[in-house]
Amino acid sequence: MRKIEVRPDSDGTPRICLNGQEIFQFGPLDQGYWPDGILTPPSDEAMAYDLEYLKKANINMIRVHIKTHPDRWYYHADRLGILVWQDMICMPKYGQTVTPEASEQWLKEFHGMIDWLYNHPSVTQWIVFNEAWGQHDTERITENIMAYDTTRIVTCASGWNDAPAGDVIDIHDYSFYPRSLPDWKLGGTRASVIGEAGGTNLAVAGHTWYSEKNLPANGGKNGHDSYRQKASFSFTTEGGRHTYSTAGEFEEAYSRYIRTLRWLRAAGGCNATVHTQITDVEHELNGFMTYDRKVSKIPVEKLGEINSALYDKIQVDTVLRWSGRCTEDTGSTFRISGTGGTFCIGIFGTRDCEIYINGELFRKAKIGAGGNEPSYSFYEFFPEDMHLLKKGKNRISIKLLPAKAEGTFVKFSVLKTED
Fold it and tell me: Is the pLDDT score of 95 beyond 70?
């Protein structure tokens, strides 16, 4: 009924293809919680509602995270044509000693899950491990799953401890300007995806799990006071997950975030992004919807309009070619005939840096989290940034920030699209 595979495009970049056609996948992380059932959906209608909401929001994929749903949920995904990435349920997150007997039983249960879900065409991807939770014998187990089910693609590890195995290289990045990581371990043959990203917060009064009338038991520590509306974000300085105080802030920022993903797809080799998450979950307030499903933080029709920008790959023109490998502060000049179109700075490397345009700070970029594996990130000029550019000659300067590891570097470019 469908074919899912990874194969190179005309430039040699690995791309996920559905029925022979390149497809960019975008959708939420789904931890599968409901306030009136916890991990058990309250009804068939409730399961259908979530997936129908995604369809209206122009979303084509969902990652089922560290659980499975009832069979009817997958039926609705089949019916609606939403692609499903299915995690294997991991062993305990901390302090796990994986014995040979435990590993054998876990793999047996993995095979059982595959057998159960095999005839659901919506399921297109198996995720073996998540963020090192109970991770062991990664290459052996990934190869086992690839052999057990040859009709789907396989991720060896979503985030953290990648291994040279599987069809996909998966990075987790909750920066506002996330990175895409090429495949360095298997010769550039695996498709690059962002397995978790976004996570931006908006508390909707009257629709939060905790409130002044239902205070968290820990007194609001460790982020459990997130039900209190507040704003903490910057588009200039990368500071991690954003928190917004109004729906307007949330919508504007989300639109800019989606525009960044367009560059990652077109110029950074990214094939998919999993956005955290479909709904708020108790103290986590980073959903498309509130936990009770009564409020879409962006009206679903508007959300669909914003998301539509992802699916037509933009055509990218190079204004300034990628620089050489820079290990100290550097810069270059470039010329533009005018400020029409959309401009972007591309960064590739392993070092955090500050980007200056004509002497003014444009972005403080955080790209060093990938260690010694270079990654791509892109920084579009938003309306308030356009005053930095001028017709004719411009200068870009890169200031490298302190690094713990030796051998870190960056490359940079200036790009443009008319799309």
Answer: no
